[in-house]
Amino acid sequence: MATANPMADEMRRFKGNDEKNPFEAMSERFDRAAQLLGLEDDFYKVLRVPSREIKVYIPVKMDSGHIEVFEGFRVQHNFARGPAKGGIRYAPDVSLDEVKALSAWMTWKCAVVNVPFGGAKGGIICDPIQMSQGELERMTRRYTAELLDFIGPDKDVPAPDMNTNEQTMAWIMDTFSMHARHTVTAVVTGKPVALGGSLGRREATGRGVQFVVDEAIKRFDLTPAETTVVVQGSGNVGGIGATLMFDKGYKIIAISDVGGGIYNKKGLNIPEALSYQAANKTFEGYKNVEFVSNSELLEIECDVLAPCATENQITSENADRIKCKILAEGANGPTTPKADKILHDKGIFVIPDILANAGGVTVSYFEWVQDRMGYFWREDEVNQRLQEKMVASFNELCRYADKHRVDTRTAAYMLAIDRVAYDTKMRGIYA
Ligand code: NAD
Does the beta carbon of 312 sit less than 6 angstroms from any atom of ligand 1? Predict the structure, then answer.
């Protein structure tokens, strides 16, 4: 579909390339894990496809007075273990295949950290940077109204993702509550703390990345002070992850945003660099560093590489030039299946996305629990419970990988599929 946005058209074509199609990447890994598990054909057929794909057209009155119609999706991949759970993304290059992949990853992610949710994801094809707050609010409310029958605390619980935030969640919660005729805080997570959000949710994904990196470096007999880290992305996951690791004594030697990054092999002062980026909307011009492109940044020699920006960053084209010991995937789908094999042959230890960035959904689960109890925890309690969950899940995954003699990514898929298949079978979700 050609649109008025050539960048979006280009990105859609890019995503049409097989290696970089996220749903194909998810399916390839699913197939391999299902085969190694010996998953029965019946359950293979059930779990390989989403449960429901919803497509909506959202008419919105723009500030100029004309009406624009936006295309939106909500894909609910699986409900075997509980309500579906997953973010909503606003971007020009959102596609149904991407949302399908992200919804399946949510199912596997929730199963890896053993929280009682299935997977879902939503998205609207739009250019949020060009839209006013009023336009975004009207679009969000109309999208929510279209989905009223499908979302809810016991059905499907949305959360923020790229270009959506606490404000977006507050609008969704309010629209849902208007129709329910009472306040329903547990319909979304990632809300403002004052409206039933959880302390620690904003930092949870970056904090979760830090917790699993803390565990992984022990396998290499490294301490934080001896560990060099490269972070791609400086948003919610990358920026907060880098700050927390910096505070813990890690040496962060490079960080980037969409326009490129900065590198200093002696280490960066992360809070200072992020303040500079926030004030100038770029890292360019920051003193005493080398400016690098995002592709150069990924190839810097380091102990830990944390891609925390977007999909398809490590592919068959650059995987052989990656020089880290540990790959901690803060983003969803930063590595393609073809790259997996190359990284494996190089002996790189991968903390797969469905574990590494699961801190976000874990604290979302805590938020949902707190909303339903109407009783809220202290921030240190939230962080403590998150740490217990991430450390236990990391160790369980490593044990599973050793037992089955597979790499950690395959192990994560096997563990998740095994759990979801068991619940599907016990419930008899195929009558
Ligand atoms: P964000 O919008 O806050 O930050 C994204 C960062 O990546 C920004 O610094 C941006 O400049 C940079 N970036 C964007 N496109 C890029 C590109 N093509 N190349 C290089 N850099 C680019 O988003 P976020 O919430 O930090 O999410 C980042 C990734 O983590 C996404 O894959 C998202 O799905 C995943 N994730 C986020 C959460 C969460 O709680 N926020 C949870 C799990 C997974």
Answer: no
**pTM surpassing 0.90?**
yes
Cβ distance 231 to 238 under 8 Å? yes
Kindly give the interhelix angle for 408-427 and 96-112, rounded to the nearest 10 degrees.
90
Q: How many CB atoms lie within 10 A of CB 153?
A: 16
Residue 237 Cα to ligand 1 midpoint, Å, equals 6
pLDDT in tens, 153-195: 999 999 999 899 999 999 999 999 999 999 999 999 999 999 9
Q: For the chain, what percentages of helix, strand and coil (3-state, to nearest 5) are there?
A: 50, 15, 35
Give the Cα separation of 200 and 376 in Å (integer). 12
**Letter for the amino acid at 171?**
W
- Whether 367 lines ligand 1, by a CB cut-off of 6 Å, is no
The pLDDT tens digits for 68-127 are 999 999 999 999 999 999 999 999 999 999 999 999 999 999 999 999 999 999 999 999
Taking CA atoms only, the protein residue closest to ligand 1 atom 33 is 331
